[in-house]
């Protein structure tokens, strides 16, 4: 039985790890995951989904704040694994660890490389309007997501998919592709191929500034932005100087008044119609006012007269490009 060390953190990683455990073909020597972090409005210290799964099966867990140069790195090397598998781990692996396993280190990456290298490939694929994404299994190298590709599988992005939808489907796809490919890795028969560097694009971790909706974009672009950031990290705008989260909406056509970008030009029982760029309209359907819970627009509008919102303008930070 081949000895594997698994490194991962979110629910995506948990699905991949569960597949390895269920296969009963590999000995999971240890799981390496990010330290417990505060979660939610109450900032409760919470273990990662991968840690919870590992503990349920009695698998040893290592949680270095920074892997390079740590005691945990020495422990991993001393374990002499046959293979290291990473899936959304969230840290770079030092050369000493990459060189430790007999069969190398493999990453389950959530894009069709060389497109969208980096930490937010699923977010970017939706945000940029891709019609498909997929999983790439690659040999890890010191350069981010640049190693030779062992296998790929594609997945369509549906019109109303958000990042949670695609994450769930991609986790299943990554698990299945990994389990299908591993036998050829250990047998030495896998025909990995190099990436085309000229076609490489990047998906860096999402910044706080990028969460803000830019109303001068078209309604289609705003819709992609909202879905790409739902449920995490979410999108927001500003109303009367207060943060105002937008959880759901869609492009809409109709005979609406024309206003300035970001202006609420009309409302219905369950939608706020906002002027977007290039004479398009975006219908907001679910919101979260500052200090309140997420709610449908219908609930938000209860007890509020139309004139309190119609013609109000959502503000944008000056100088921020969408």
TrEMBL record:
Residues 205-304 form the Formyl transferase C-terminal domain. GO terms for cellular component: cytosol. It catalyses: L-methionyl-tRNA(fMet) + (6R)-10-formyltetrahydrofolate = N-formyl-L-methionyl-tRNA(fMet) + (6S)-5,6,7,8-tetrahydrofolate + H(+). Its EC number is 2.1.2.9. (6S)-5,6,7,8-tetrahydrofolate binds at residues 111-114. The keyword Metal-binding does not apply. GO terms for molecular function: methionyl-tRNA formyltransferase activity. Residues 3-181 form the Formyl transferase N-terminal domain. SUPFAM superfamilies: FMT C-terminal domain-like, Formyltransferase. Keywords: Protein biosynthesis, Transferase. InterPro entries: Fmt, Formyl_trans_C, Formyl_trans_C_sf, Formyl_transf_N, Formyl_transf_N_sf, Formyl_transferase-like_C_sf, Met-tRNA-FMT_C, Met-tRNA-FMT_N. NCBIfam families: fmt. Belongs to the Fmt family. Attaches a formyl group to the free amino group of methionyl-tRNA(fMet). The formyl group appears to play a dual role in the initiator identity of N-formylmethionyl-tRNA by promoting its recognition by IF2 and preventing the misappropriation of this tRNA by the elongation apparatus. This is Methionyl-tRNA formyltransferase. It comes from Eremococcus coleocola ACS-139-V-Col8. The lineage of its organism: Bacteria, Bacillati, Bacillota, Bacilli, Lactobacillales.
